[in-house]
Automatic annotation (TrEMBL):
Stretches with biased composition (Basic and acidic residues): 38-55
Record-stated family: Belongs to the protein kinase superfamily. CMGC Ser/Thr protein kinase family. CDC2/CDKX subfamily.
Domain Protein kinase: residue ranges: 106-397
Protein's name according to its UniProt entry: cyclin-dependent kinase
Domain of life: Eukaryota
InterPro entries for the chain: CDK, CDK11/PITSLRE_STKc, Kinase-like_dom_sf, Prot_kinase_dom, Ser/Thr_kinase_AS
GO biological process, one term: regulation of mitotic cell cycle
PANTHER family: CELL DIVISION PROTEIN KINASE, CYCLIN-DEPENDENT KINASE 11A-RELATED
GO molecular function: ATP binding; cyclin-dependent protein serine/threonine kinase activity
Region (Disordered), start-end ranges: 1-88, 399-438
Catalytic reaction list: L-seryl-[protein] + ATP = O-phospho-L-seryl-[protein] + ADP + H(+); L-threonyl-[protein] + ATP = O-phospho-L-threonyl-[protein] + ADP + H(+)
């Protein structure tokens, strides 16, 4: 019987030899891998044994703290806690959220004032007898959005701040009827005065040494805020509090917010009109610390004259007063200002008289260093305004008279008492959601008529008889 023919696809001797070589190489790789694993295991055991040997010399070994979940080495089995092969969550004891205290723990004494974002009253804690300021947040009960973003920002920023020139938030309390969201109160430290009321009622202006003390404290508080990426965005004398020991504190953070570098697009509807920087009036939406420094410049001038420096009736009138005092912007003094939305169609005067600053003529008794500081704070170009740290290092504060010590500061009757005082009508900060101003074509060419005949500088003349 003939043998069965071999298929032409069957393996020959060469194929068998190649297959044997492959099996040999695979076994060698497996052996090397196992040897490497044994070496790593030996090194790990040596590292673990070293601390145990050191501990055994001094006493019993310390218990090893487990700081991360580890998988069980055994096979997964199902139990009451789930599969043993799945890492278990570690639980650490920590604080818990509790209920806010009730506002009934405080006894209201009298109303102080109403601001743009809340009502402020003087109150006394019943248990301790400590006098505090109680600020009730303004919340529209018809607004279904809940707590407004301005209130959340104010609470967050005040909780984060810890500086001697920033008002301290002690706690947040609520009314007994927790179903009504409008009953939310901030418990703040109490200060006797706000700077605006003092300026209105004091018979004589602050001394130069006192002005320097107030400005130093203001700049110190602003430097702290800016170092922590906080813009106040509503600095004015009514938001600066002063106690009877000469200590100034920045208050009312309803418009404040955190920013980054570079800052994001922000709303231009910030800062009370009389203290609003020109770039905001011209529609800028990308701005930074310089808007607060412009407000500091306006406060500087107000401390010297006891009157708000730039009292515009509306945005156009405010810009007019700014240009009259600081000069008209040009490409040299404020590059690229024409790119701002409200500056593209403005008609501005030309000539040397229109571009010069009138601050020296407005403040004839101010020293050269003081004029230089005020000019820099009220620079039209925000890039040329000093930072709060640079302001603190200015020569103005090193000249005589030196800043007065806080303990030597004069005292005043407390406005927070139930005294009746005259109160001037002043503008409030812009309301959230308000429509931004659109200037269109505005003609400023006539605001400097007759300036060339204006007296320059200060001085006096003797009349001979």
């Amino acid at each position: 019987m003939a043998t069965k023919a071999k298929s032409r696809w069957a393996d020959d001797e060469a194929d068998a030899a190649l297959e044997a070589q492959r099996k040999k190489e695979k076994a060698e790789r497996k052996r090397l891998k196992a040897g490497k694993a044994r070496k790593l295991e030996a090194e790990r055991q040596a590292r673990d044994a070293a601390p145990r040997e050191a501990d055994s010399a001094d006493g019993p070994p310390a218990k090893r703290r487990r700081v991360s979940p580890e998988r069980e080495a055994t096979q997964p089995t199902t139990g009451s806690d789930g599969p043993s092969g799945v890492p278990k969550l570690l639980r650490f004891e920590g604080g818990t959220f509790g209920r806010c205290r009730s506002v009934e723990n405080y006894d209201k004494l009298n109303d102080i004032e109403e601001g743009a974002y809340g009502w402020v009253s003087r109150a006394k804690e019943i248990v301790t007898g400590k006098v505090v300021a109680l600020k009730r947040l303004k919340i529209d009960p018809k607004d279904r959005g809940g707590l407004p973003i301005t209130g959340l920002r104010e609470i967050q920023i005040l909780k984060d701040c810890d500086h001697r020139n920033v008002v301290k938030l002690q706690e947040v309390v609520v009314g007994d009827d927790t179903s009504r969201i409008e009953n939310i109160f901030l418990v703040l430290e109490f200060l006797e005065h706000d700077l605006k009321s003092i300026l209105e009622d004091m018979p004589e202006p602050f001394l130069t040494s006192e002005v320097k003390t107030l400005l130093q404290q203001l700049a110190s508080g602003i430097a702290y805020l800016h170092d922590n990426w906080i813009l106040h965005r509503d600095l004015k004398t009514s938001n600066l509090l002063l106690n009877n020991r000469g200590q100034l504190k920045i208050a009312d953070f309803g418009m404040a917010r955190y920013v980054g570098d570079p800052p994001p697009n922000l709303t231009q509807l910030v800062v009370t009109l009389w203290y609003r920087a020109p770039e905001l009036l011209l529609g800028a939406t990308r701005y930074g610390r310089a808007i607060d420094m412009w407000s500091v410049g306006c406060i500087f001038g107000e401390l010297l004259t006891r009157e708000p420096l730039l009292q515009g009736r509306n945005e156009v009138d405010e810009l007019t007063k700014i240009f009259e005092l600081c000069g008209v912007p040009t490409e040299e003094t404020w590059p690229s200002f024409r790119r701002l939305p409200n500056a593209r169609s403005l008609r501005l005067p030309t000539g040397k008289a229109a571009t010069g600053s009138a601050i020296r003529a407005r403040f004839p008794l101010l020293t050269s260093a003081g004029v230089a500081l005020l000019n820099s704070l009220l620079a039209l170009d925000p890039e040329r305004r000093p930072t709060a740290r640079e302001m603190l290092a200015h020569e103005y504060f090193r000249q005589d008279p030196k800043p007065k010590q806080e303990a030597m500061f004069p005292t005043f009757p407390s406005k927070a008492g139930q005294e009746r005082r005259r109160r001037r009508e002043t503008p409030n900060a812009p309301a959230r959601g308000q429509q931004a101003a659109d200037f269109g074509a505005v003609d400023f060419t006539g605001i400097f008529s007759g300036r060339e005949r204006e007296e320059r500088g200060g001085g006096f003349s003797l009349r001979m008889v």
